[in-house]
């Protein structure tokens, strides 16, 4: 194993050890950062896979979910804890291995 110093432009393939702090890209507008990401699939090739998330039509699954939520005691207890910003998951549900950071709500529902 041999380490050899190559100054500046002679070192055409620098590794992480040879980079200076000022050589590291500073922001997302840096060309070195932008060139790291490429789009493999173009939008037009997957347009048929997209769904319309803004539909107001209630699906049978959504209807079943809406009917079941009020009857689910566990769901209601966890929803209450999340909406009241409880510090801990209710003791009865410790076996679920959840933390309060796992629970969030929107429109009076758990996400």
Description of the molecule:
The structure is a single chain. This protein is mostly helical and 111 residues long. The chain has a domain at 60-110. 25% of the residues lie in helices and 4% in strands. The chain contains four helices and two strands, in the order ααααββ. The chain has helices spanning 31-34, 43-46, 60-68, 73-83; strands at residues 105-106, 109-110. Strands 1-2 form a two-stranded antiparallel ribbon. A hairpin with a 2-residue loop joins strand 1 (105-106) and strand 2 (109-110). The longest helix has 11 residues, at 73-83. The radius of gyration is 26 Å and the shape is elongated.
Layout of strands and helices, then pairs:
Elements: H1 31-34, H2 43-46, H3 60-68, H4 73-83, E1 105-106, E2 109-110
Antiparallel strand pairs: 1-2
Give structural attributes.
about 110 residues, mainly alpha, two-stranded antiparallel ribbon, 4 helices, about 5% strand
Q: Which structural class do you get from the secondary structure elements?
A: mainly alpha
Whole-Å distance between the termini?
54 Å
Radius of gyration, in Å, reads 26 Å
Q: Which stretches are poorly predicted, pLDDT < 50 over at least 5 residues?
A: none
Order of helices and strands: HHHHEE
Helix content: 25-40%
Which strand order spans the largest sheet, edge to edge or round the barrel? 1-2
Q: Judging from the principal axes of the Cα atoms, what is the shape?
A: elongated
Number of strands: 2
Number of DSSP helical runs: 4
Taking all residues together, what is the mean pLDDT? 78
Write down the oligomeric state: single chain
Report the biggest beta sheet as strand number plus sense, adding barrel if it closes.
2 strands, antiparallel
Strand content: under 5%
């Amino acid at each position: 194993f041999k380490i050899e110093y190559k100054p500046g432009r002679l070192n055409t393939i620098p590794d992480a050890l040879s980079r200076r702090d000022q050589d590291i890209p500073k922001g997302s507008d840096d060309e070195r950062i932008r060139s790291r990401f490429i789009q493999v699939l173009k939008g037009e090739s997957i347009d048929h896979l997209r769904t319309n998330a803004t539909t107001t039509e209630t699906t049978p699954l959504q209807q079943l979910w809406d009917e079941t939520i009020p009857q689910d005691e566990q769901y209601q207890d966890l929803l209450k804890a999340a909406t009241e910003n409880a510090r801990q998951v209710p003791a009865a549900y410790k076996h679920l291995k959840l933390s309060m950071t796992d629970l969030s709500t929107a429109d009076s529902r758990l996400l």
